[in-house]
Amino acid sequence: MFELIGESLRSAVNKLKFVDDEKALKNALETLKKSLLKADVYHKVTKELVALVEADMKNAPIGQKQFLDSIKKNLTGVLTAPNAGKSQGFVFASNPPTVVLMAGLQGGGKTTSTAKLANYLKTRGKKVLVAACDLQRLAAVEQLRQLCEANELNLFSIEGEKNPVKVAAAALEKARSDFYDVLLVDTAGRLAVDEALMNELKEVKTAINPHEVFYIADAMAGQDAVKTALTFNEAVGVTGVILTKFDADTKGGVAIGIARQVGVPLRFVGVGEKVADFESFIPERIVGRIMGEGDLATLAEKASTIINEKDVKLINKKIKKGEFNFNDFLAQLESVKKLGNMKNLIGMIPGLSSVAGQIKDIDLDNSKEIKHIKAMIDSMTTKERENPDLLNNARKRRIAAGAGLDQIEVNRFLKQFTNAAKLAKKFAGKGSLNGLAQMMNQRGIPR
User: Fold this and answer.
1) Helix (H), strand (E) at residue 108
2) What pLDDT, on a 0 to 100 scale, did the predictor assign at position 361?
3) pLDDT of the residue at 249
4) Considering Cα of 5, then 263, then 231, then 277, what sign does the dihedral take?
5) Four-residue CA torsion sign, 376, 377, 379, 384
6) pLDDT along the chain (447 residues), means of 10
7) How far apart, in whole angstroms, are the C-alpha atoms of residue 239 and residue 249?
8) Would the pTM count as exceeding 0.85?
9) Do residues 268 and 278 touch, judged by C-beta distance below 8 A?
10) What pLDDT, on a 0 to 100 scale, did the predictor assign at position 439?
């Protein structure tokens, strides 16, 4: 996401030595300015950020550390909307359900973002109802229904109803009577801002009186996304922005400018096509990623939503005893898939964030290697899955034939599985899982 801007900012920092002079500082500031503009940061925001850094450097020794600290501090400030307060991520109302109106243009990812936000909240133990109020676009309700069914989300719709206000009002009654924590209302969009769109949004908003109005902005639209967000804010009063297709925007400049320009916090970003590819936008953490320091806090939070402590203890126990089998392998693979975009996860690890952009994303659903592995395991008997030691040459030949593969590939996979199990046993015996937990606690990272 931040490959270009991260590299550019680090290049600006490298223009200075540990202790340097005015001429070197001027060169570094010019590099900083060019880097921000090249990354599509709005020119007024760029000018403001460079001026803030320059002012800091007048009151401190000129050096690499001081320059880096100033960039981090002021970049965090720019990413934080004016008067944002505690409005980061999702803010729950004091009396549920928390009602959120989802607004945006057609094709910007509004319906998908609604499902992503619902899934994000569900994985954190919240009861969420999604209302299908986009009655303008053909198949919009069906798209939302399919997303909800695939991810076990609760959907509210009224067959044959053409009035989105009635659907929204009925959904609110349902959310109240069935004690839902959150109601997300997906509304219609248009290809461009028009009077009909705004009037419909205002009517729906009046009917449900939402706690939040989230505008869904397409990161690929660049500064047009900011302009449209401003228009929506003036018309219906936006309280937060969700930036979609952020994984495709290697520059990352829109994210840096949007909060400052619109004046409302950037709450979430979509970082991939899958429902799990969705993150809260916390400025301090984002700056850490931009500057190549990773983001262990977000990684830990994502992991905590899918990793059950009892399951971890059970798997660790099986690994120690050398009983980790193919059923356990498949279960762990499914858990990892729920973490979302793998390239994005790599970018959260300190020391690896700078190379994340060079790594081809791993698609655990469509990878040829993963498909082959699943085919091999599917070709095993129940006893073979539970006890890998049973796999002699005759069984391997049968598995290879069943998976449509060569026995050499089966042998290679089994060898890799055995070696990985041995390595895991070695680390588990040293209490590495507890060590990792202790390290995260020492760093102040919530689990």
Assistant:
1) none
2) 54
3) 55
4) positive
5) positive
6) 66 72 85 84 88 86 82 86 69 94 89 94 94 88 93 93 94 96 92 83 94 90 82 89 76 74 87 84 79 62 64 74 81 70 59 51 66 89 90 93 91 84 62 42 39
7) 23
8) no
9) yes
10) 39
**Torsion angle, alpha carbons of 242, 245, 251, 256, to 10:** 0
Phi/psi of residue 182, nearest 5 degrees: -140, 140
The tokens of 328 are what? Answer: 């356990």
Q: Is 19 within 8 Å of 61 (Cβ atoms)?
A: yes
Q: Which two tokens stand for residue 243?
A: 């930036």
Tell me, what's the pLDDT at 394? 93
**Counting every residue, how long is the chain?**
447
Q: How far apart are CA 45 and CA 50, in angstroms?
A: 9
Pairing state of beta strands 182-187 and 98-104? parallel
Task: Tell me what pLDDT residue 435 has.
Answer: 41
CA neighbor of 280 nearest in space, from 420, 142, 94, 89: 89
Give Cβ neighbours of residue 181 (< 8 Å, ≥ 6 apart). 92, 96, 97, 98, 121, 126, 127, 128
Helix axes 368-378, 407-429, angle to 10 degrees: 90
Q: What tokens does 35 get?
A: 């880097």
For position 433, what pLDDT does the model report? 41
